[in-house]
Write a structure and sequence with these properties.
alpha+beta; Arc Repressor Mutant, subunit A; 2 domains; two-stranded antiparallel sheet
Amino acid sequence: MSEQAGLRPNYSEAIEDFLKAIYLLQQEHERVQTSMLADALGITAPSTTEMAKKLAKANLVVHEPYRGIQLTIAGERIALEIIRHHRLIELFLVEALGYTWDEVHNEAERLEHAVSERLAERIAEYLSNPRYDPHGDPIPSAEGSVAERRLTSLSQWPLNQQGRVARLVDQSPDMLRYLAEKGLVVGAQVDVVARDPFDGPLSLVVNDQPQIIGQNVASNVLVDRIDD
């Protein structure tokens, strides 16, 4: 992040979305392929390649044909600022305006580009400088640092060991509503008491309530251990 809020160059929403998408894909892939980025953004592969070449000239990405795309330091700084805005907005909508966690993503997508760094700082202060959004995603600091945690998917969590729901991978509205029905919200205490073989369902205790979920759902719930 720049030290003086609001003094970074103004980029179009399309460029900011492009850089943000690369950053998010880089969390899972060392090199982001053009096809991955096109799918994530809902645009054609030729359009993706054209944008990558444009941003490479601006020193925001490194683009090597057939080897993929990576953010430069400057490109990552912009991506992290937009992600910070997005996640702060999501939390603000839940905490201050009473939105449910399945409603906030689309609202934040619309607002993230319009928020100044000054307003982002005011929102962060209002929320007591939070580290995570409603879905457990880390909120980058104003300086661009991101908290790291070692989390385990619920599908791989040891039997009879209590943990705490820390993050959701699939944040589609339908999945979030289903998880909420099962009590699997961020912060919930969870214990896997049985796991059927051959990718069968898991029997859980969530905040003292018995629940059953499938392996696919469990793989989207990331769990952290509860410190003694």
